[in-house]
Amino acid sequence: MRKFKQYLIAIFCVQSIGISADITNRLGASYYEYGGNYEYSYYNLSWYYAIVGDINKGFFQLPDTEFSIYLSTSKSTYKGDMWSNDANLVLKTDLFANQKFSPFLIFQWTFDSTTALDYRYNPGIGGKVRLGPPGFSISYAFLGEYYKYTGYEKDQLLRHSIRPKLKLYPVEGIEIVEQLYYKPENGNSENYLIENILTIYVDTVIPGTAITFEHTYNVNSNPPLGYAEEDTFFSVGISVEL
């Protein structure tokens, strides 16, 4: 835990340095509810904040640097009882964010009651390379992983993360983002995680507001006993630029 705190403090200290930059501040939400014979409700909230620009603090200067935070949480109830509960946090610092190669620091934290995951921490370091057509990049990160499943002892390992990403703008007002994460354990390729995220943003007539469609496909090759390897999720919601 001490290492996690030191890592987070380092990221927040860097992000607190004065910066002249462009800012993205996006809030998303979705909700649905069933009544009668099927008393089920679900909500999801997400927040993405990124600041990109040049850092100029005396002798400390970094051009084209991006700091970002992504936070999401979702909960659902069935007949008044908790059915699912999960959250995800990603902190990231990219140097030379809009250049062909961009090194980065990253910290991820997540939990998910539906897969018995009490927590998973992933501090790491990596780099992103822009390749081929505009909007396409490949990232690699070397991650530490500290995790615990319900009913199991806490454990740790090292993991690789490989992520191709593609952004498309087929017509004005529509953005498509496809991301595929492949995360094998270091030295054991049979133990891996896969996360495929497809997100579509469709602008509305209200400035800064879009309808979002998201489909997620997850694989855990070594889940806890009694749990499936695969999970899928689809949601429709609204995102607002603040």
Keywords:
single chain; 242 residues; Porin; 1 helix; 12 strands
Provide a quick synopsis of the model.
With 242 residues, the protein is mainly beta.
Describe the fold and architecture.
This protein has 242 residues and is mostly beta strands. The protein has a single domain, classed as Beta Barrel (Porin), CATH 2.40.160.40. Helices cover 6% and strands 71% of the residues. A 12-stranded antiparallel barrel has the order 1-2-3-4-5-6-7-8-9-10-11-12.
The count of β-strands is 12
- The pLDDT mean sits at 89
Count the DSSP helices. 1
Contiguous uncertain segments of 5+ residues: none
Major beta sheet, strand line-up:
1-2-3-4-5-6-7-8-9-10-11-12
Q: Give, in order, the helices and strands.
A: HEEEEEEEEEEEE
List the helices and strands and how they pair.
Elements: H1 2-15, E1 19-34, E2 40-57, E3 60-78, E4 81-94, E5 101-112, E6 117-130, E7 136-149, E8 155-168, E9 174-185, E10 188-203, E11 209-220, E12 230-241
Antiparallel strand pairs: 1-2, 1-12, 2-3, 3-4, 4-5, 5-6, 6-7, 7-8, 8-9, 9-10, 10-11, 11-12
